Hints:
By secondary structure, the protein is an alpha+beta fold. The chain has helices at residues 21-43, 48-61, 105-115, 123-133, 146-161, 169-172, 229-234, 237-248, 252-264, and strands at residues 4-8, 81-87, 92-99, 120-122, 176-181, 187-193, 214-217, 221-227, 270-276, 281-282, 292-295, 300-304, 309-314. It has a 9-stranded mixed sheet. The protein has a 4-stranded antiparallel sheet with strand order 7-8-9-10. α8 packs across α9 (252-264).
Amino acid sequence: MTLALAIHGGCGTLPKAEMTEAEWAQARSDLAGALRAGWTILAKGGPAVDAVEAAVRVMEDSPHFNAGHGAAFNADGEHELDASIMDGATLAAGAVCAAKHIRNPIVAAKALMLRGDPLLLAGPAADVFAEHEGVDTVPNEYFSTERRRKNLASMKIREIVGTASEASEAEKHGTVGAVACDAQGHLAAATSTGGYTNKPAGRVGDSPIIGAGTYARDGRCAVSGTGKGEYFIRYCVGHEIASLVAYKGLTLDQATHEVLGELSDHKIGAGLVAVGADGTIVAPYNTEGMYRGWVTPDGLLHVATHGDVEMVGQA
Ligand code: ASP
C-alpha cells in the first residue's frame, strides 16, 4: 500500500512580496517538522489517524499558522479554537469548538474520538473535557501573537471604514490540516483553526464539522479544508468530494476541482488537501498561495507557500 501524507497551513498566506526570507524559512521548517512528525508514524506502520494528529499538533504549536499558538483573535480580543479528526477506517470522529484553553485542540478532538460519544463538544464543555482527560490547558493569552494582534487592529479599522471585504487572505484567516493513508490502506483527516480574524464570539466554522472541513472514509478519500467556513459547511465540502469520487466515479483531482470551482463562484478564498484510496495526493487552492506540503512515497519532503514547490530533504 502506498503511504501518503499531505498537510496545509491555510490559504491565508502573506503575499509573496511581504514575506521576509526569515518568515519563509521558519514557516518552511515548521511545515517540514509537521511532515516529519506524521511520516515517522506512517513509516513504522502506525495508523493514519495518529499521523494526522501528530502533524497538526506541530502546526498548532507554531506561531506561523492560525491554529493553537498563533490563532486569530475574535471580535472580543479572545481566541476560540475549533478542531476535528476522523478515522476513515471506522468513521469514528471527534471534534471540539469554541474552546478557549486547550493548548492542542487536535489532541482533545482525538481523545473525544477515542471515547466514542459525544462526537463534538463546544466551549467550556470542551475545555473541561480536556482537563479531565489530562490534555494540556493554558490561559487564553498563550495563543496570542503580535502578528494576529495587528490583524485584529487592521480588521477593526476596516470594519469602521467599510473595507473589510478588501482585506488580504493573510489578515483574515488560516487553518491547519493533514490527510494520510497508512500501510493498511486506512485514511484519516484532521483540521484545526482559530477561525477568521474579528469573528463574532461563539462563531463556529467548518473545521470542527465532520463532512465540511474534515472528512475521511476508506475506499473514497480524506479531505481537510481551509477557507471561508460558512461556504465549506453549505457545500459539505469534504463529504461532497468523497461522494463525487464514490458515486460519480470522478478522480480525486476532478472531484476537488469541481467543488473548489463551486466555492470560487462565491469569490471566497478556499483550498484543501486530499488523499485518495490509492494514496494520490492533491492540494488545490484558489488564493495567491497556500502553506502546504507532502511526502512522496520515497520519503522526500516537499513544501510550498505560493507557486514554487521546494524539496527540503528526507523524512
Ligand atoms: N475554515 C476556517 C474557518 O472558517 C478558516 C480558514 O481556513 O481560513 O473557520
